[in-house]
Write a structure and sequence with these properties.
With 230 residues, this protein is mostly helical. It contains ten helices and no strands. The longest helix has 37 residues. The radius of gyration is 25 Å and the shape is globular.
């Protein structure tokens, strides 16, 4: 009887909301390990996010075919991934609506971004042609232009990732430029690495450009959330 009473008292001390394994006397660590070994939901969630990245990459590529719509398309792709992560409605209608709003307010900013890239590409072309005298000095100018081109690309992508419907693109761009160069260079390096992966993937197999762009959008969202701009 004493053993029965002791067992009853031990069971009475178990909280009502305790896991069944704890109520039966199994240690919490064992119950946690069992759940970790059988629960597939975290893995499924990670695959779901990867699938959304692939889908967002296809939409991004199609929406950016006009080139001047590249940054608005990237902003819409980042918005789609944010909505998915926040468990909000995330479908092609929401993507299209955000893309249209971004194009309507951001095409001028996107055009200036392309113009800056074209100017830097022209500088690199002239420097690499070998027609200019100067030797090491010209090589240094070329390296500076290459670094500046990468910085402009990353700043543009961070601007698109930080933009929200109703935001001013110029103000968002200035804040993104500060994060790119001064306050949060780690996220910029992360994006630069993602950009290199996109270039290599597209060079090796062009159809890989679409999913790689979706992963780059996820990289931009991660960089902004790392900084605290959710």
């Amino acid at each position: 009887m004493s053993g029965t009473n002791a067992a009853a008292r031990a069971f009475a001390n178990v909280p009502l909301d305790a896991p069944p394994d704890t109520a039966r006397g199994t240690s919490p660590d064992t119950a946690t390990d069992t759940a970790a070994g059988t629960d597939r939901r975290p893995l499924a969630a990670r695959f779901a996010l990867f699938a959304e990245c692939l889908l967002a990459g296809v939409w991004l590529l199609l929406a950016a075919l006009a080139l001047v719509t590249a940054l608005p398309a990237f902003a819409a792709a980042c918005g789609h991934l944010r909505r998915h992560l926040d468990a909000e409605q995330a479908g092609w209608r929401e993507f299209a609506a955000e893309w249209a709003a971004a194009v309507r307010t951001g095409w001028r900013f996107s055009l200036l971004w392309w113009a800056a890239l074209a100017l830097l590409a022209f500088d690199l072309r002239v420097v690499s042609s070998g027609l200019l005298p100067g030797g090491p000095a010209v090589a240094a100018v070329g390296a500076t232009a290459a670094v500046a081109a990468v910085a402009v690309v990353v700043a543009g992508l961070r601007t698109a990732a930080a933009w929200r419907p109703g935001d001013d693109w110029a103000r968002t761009g200035r804040a993104a430029a500060r994060r790119t160069l001064r306050t949060e260079p780690g996220g910029s390096l992360l994006l630069a690495g993602g950009l290199a992966v996109v270039v290599v993937a597209a060079w090796m197999l062009p159809p890989l450009a679409a999913p790689a762009l979706g992963c780059l959008a996820a990289c931009a969202v991660a960089a902004e959330r790392r900084y605290g701009r959710t």
